[in-house]
Design goal:
By secondary structure, this protein is of the alpha+beta class. The protein has two domains: 2-192, no CATH class; 197-300, Alpha-Beta Plaits (2-Layer Sandwich), CATH 3.30.70.120. The protein is built from eleven helices and four strands, in the order ααααααααβαββαβα. The protein has a four-stranded antiparallel beta sheet, with helices on one face. Strand 2 (223-229) and strand 3 form a beta hairpin. Helix 3 (56-71) packs parallel to helix 6 (134-145). Mean pLDDT is 81; it is low at 282-301.
């Protein structure tokens, strides 16, 4: 058990270190040489470095301190320690690493700078560390005042980019907003993965046939509930089956086609799924296993 935990910790720290390298590439190879900014604490450090010509690594450490103090009251001790280590290593990495100027195209700088920085921050967050303290601030304010985390981060960055527009230039502020958008999107992709799932709740008198077709043609599992209909204006009650399943977003149209082929009057509710764990969904693209799964479900019925 201890050996497994040790290996997991080593894997986490190795991935955090990889995230630090990626983030430092985004900063040193793209954003810093061209005076571009990002959102959050990194953006503050970049702005102060641009205005007062102070080493970004020192500013990154100093600007992170208030947010890490707030983290004492909002995040676990383990995450706080890992975040302190990660931010310190990022500052050191910025000092040590040197990269040639890759491009002078402002659009490419904004996109690829945000891509590398977002990948690094996302990889660190996925393994329990924070490279940018604005998320900690969001959690802290939510705990104290009930303001949504996303709202806090949006206000924080709106103020930051407004100051950038006034103190430096509107053009730099606009490119920095683009960098921030790319960074935020890449962070989401790294944390949540590239798979995008949706859930379906299907109410039909032909639930058994729909279930069989879904398992046979798509290889997905399903949870079946017993329910009753007729609580509307008709007042007629009838027992039926309710199917609950999760599919990959690319198969939405195929799912609707399967349902309509069996029962055009089926009642279907589609909803977004934030996280999926376990079950048969992770074997989604393995056709051999999907066929075996479909066959076993059909035999059970």
């Amino acid at each position: 058990m201890r050996k497994t935990q040790l290996l997991n910790n080593i894997k986490e720290y190795l991935q955090i270190f990889a995230g630090i390298i990626l983030a430092s590439i985004g900063l040193k190879a793209f954003l810093l040489p061209n005076g571009f900014l990002d959102g959050g604490v990194t953006g503050i450090a970049l702005l102060l470095s641009r205005l007062f010509d102070i080493d970004i690594s020192i500013l990154l450490l100093l600007c992170s301190i208030p947010f890490l103090i707030a983290g004492i009251y909002t995040i676990s001790r383990r995450i706080l320690i890992k975040s302190i280590i990660a931010i310190t290593l990022l500052a050191i990495s910025i000092v040590v690493e040197s990269f040639p100027v890759i491009t002078e195209d402002k659009l490419l700088i904004a996109i690829f700078g945000g891509l590398f920085l977002g990948a690094g921050i996302g990889l660190a967050i996925r393994n329990g560390a924070v490279l940018d303290g604005s998320e900690i601030l969001g959690v802290f304010i939510y705990d104290r005042f009930g303001i949504k985390i996303g709202t806090t981060i949006l206000i924080f960055n709106s103020i930051l980019f407004s100051i950038t527009a006034i103190a430096i230039s509107t053009e730099i502020a606009m490119y920095s907003i683009l960098t921030y958008i790319v960074t935020a999107k890449v962070i989401d992709l790294v944390i949540e993965g590239f798979e995008d799932f949706v859930g379906f709740t299907i109410v039909s008198r032909e639930a058994i046939q729909i279930e069989r077709k879904l398992s046979k043609e798509m290889g997905v599992g399903a949870t079946i509930y017993k329910g009753s209909s007729g609580y509307g204006s008709s007042g007629k009650q009838e027992e039926l089956r309710i199917i609950h399943t999760v599919i990959n977003r690319i198969d939405i149209r195929k799912t609707y086609r399967i349902i309509e082929d069996v029962d055009q009057d089926a009642f279907v509710v589609e909803f977004d799924v934030n996280s999926v764990k376990g079950g048969v969904l992770r074997r989604y693209f393995d056709k051999k296993k999907s066929k075996n799964l479909a066959q076993s479900i059909t035999n059970d019925l």
